[in-house]
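Ticket reopened. Same input as before:
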Amino acid sequence: MAEDGRKAATDADSARREPQAEAAEFPLLRIDSVVKKFGAFRAVDQLSLDIRAGEFFALLGPSGCGKTTLLRMLAGFETPDEGRILLDGKDIAPVLPHQRPVNMMFQNYALFPHLTVRDNIAFGLKRAGLPRAEIDARVAEMVALVKLEGLAKRKPDQLSGGQRQRVALARSLARRPQLLLLDEPLAALDKKLRESTQLELMEVQRRLGMTFIIVTHDQEEAMTVADRIGVMDSGRLEQVATPRELYEAPSSRRIAEFVGDVNLFDGQVASREAGRVTISTKDAGSIVVAEPRQPITKTTVAVAIRPEKVKLSRRGPVADALSAHAINRLEGVVTDVGYLGGLTTYKVKLDSGAVVRSSMANTARLDMDAYSTSQRVVAWFTPDDCVVLEK
Amino acid sequence: MSGRRIFTRPARSAAIAPYLWMLLFFLVPFGFVLKISLSQAAIAQPPYLPVFDLTQGVASIKAAFAALSSDNFRLLASDDLYVLSYLRSLVVALVSTSILLVIGYPIAYGMARLPKRWQGIAMMLVIVPFWTSFLIRIYAWINILQHDGLLNKILLALHLVSAPVVWLSTDSAMYLGIVYSYLPFMILPLYATLSKMEPALLEAASDLGATPLQAFWRVTFPLSLPGVGAGVLLCFIPIVGEFVIPDLLAGSNSMMIGQTLWLEFFANKDWPVASAAAVVLLMLLVGPLVLYDRLQRRQLENAR
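Engineering reply: fixed in the latest deploy. New output:
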């Protein structure tokens, strides 16, 4: 079933990015039914994935889901037990790590403590046997790229965490690898620095036109930097999709919950007519949803609505001639108000006892309409705001 | 009384303790040795002149000071016996330390790469010889190396030699004894630095195109240099002054300075010359000692 979801997602995705998809006939990297076992534990389980040249791809998943193991197989530090890894059409299983045109940026950077910034960056170039002048030129270029001018003679322990991160990036880029692997590259940085570094990573990737694969457990980070995201769990890919698709059209409950906040209501398909499906839920009565592109096959489903799609009002929306009959209205009492600056989150307790979460942008500075606890409100959303999940 | 005082007082006296120790057990005895090295041998009790006698007043102490001379040091420089002893000591220490490094490094490297639960056992195996007295172990070597000893018996039984080989009282036997005795002192500091090294560094080297051999020489070895330094000095310094092993295992035709010193002190009863030899030995070792101290301090700073 993960297969189906992934296929649908890649199809939709390639439709959106037509020009690039055509340019690369065969993917730069093809991971074909790869299995990696540690004893009886299958760290990576029958995983297949194609990555195009020039793509920024994120492997997202909780710790222990196998994403780092997959990355280490690409770098050559682990060998797959089954399946093939093709880089540029060639099987790289027999290629030793030091011979692969792949470089890795390590989680804790793994900078050589006895070498200066310059020598760290030049390490890979010297091993490649480049002439001295070219090494110097390439190091200078890398130092400028990651904005480390003036620090080239320092040793790693004389640098801040953010500077070390840049050295690690420069070192892994210096050999101009076909594929750059980044293992939780920003995990050691604080939030502010992490956000600005994410943007810099994207800029570097775009400027060099390189293919990046980043491993992360931070869904916001994955959404920010990546063109496509593969969500991993228990050694398998649950869904591969663009950030928007992953958020707006998750393929399963687990992904809907893992990526962002969501309201979920379990229920049964009650009736269908003219592109509208009515689902009778236990906690929220009947909810009308738009018929998805792929028809619903099961009768027991879940309806997912993101909190920002749920609007609150005192009496419900003003009737609209076209859609009034289809708008979902849930009545309840505000139990919790969380003011976050840019937006405010509300929890509304429905008469059934279930809780609906809503978040609304604070578009006006003086909001006379702000809701307060124990106020009775109508939470409403349209059929198009809902996603039907079959698993 | 404030809480602060309670804690600072013992801390302050604890800081003095090592200096007090040094003063009592190193500087004061060294003062005695230095004084004796500037005296003349005499048939007396104690066997040297002059003697400071505090009961005879200031004038006699002044006279005693005036009687001190550096004759003994001049003797050390002029007589081949001493110069050759010093040279031999340095050569033996240098050669032994080199052999120790070549043998000890691979052992320490192998230990550091064992699975964690085996490392403790390997460490035990390195330390276990210390459970037997050092002298007994050297005598055991004499047993193995002597004319009808275990080694010759095995070689004869295997028909590798036709007649017993002379092992005992040779330089080879001495080097064997020294290397055997000092190996733990080489392995332990090397193991300490090698086991602390992040495995990710080797992966990074390999990822950046280094062959395993290049990764070793460019990353592992430079990062283990503090351990190499500590191991080398920890062996070199005591080997220079080694007395027991050369005395028991080496031949009697050339002596290390420790043996010469022993002869002067016990056989010749020439305390002043023996003391002068000891002072010069200490001066020779000050350089390596300071180096060792610096290495240790730098490592402490890096650990912080």
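Chain A has two domains: 2-101+177-254, 261-317+327-389. Residues 191-208 of chain A form the longest helix (18 residues). Please confirm and we'll close it.
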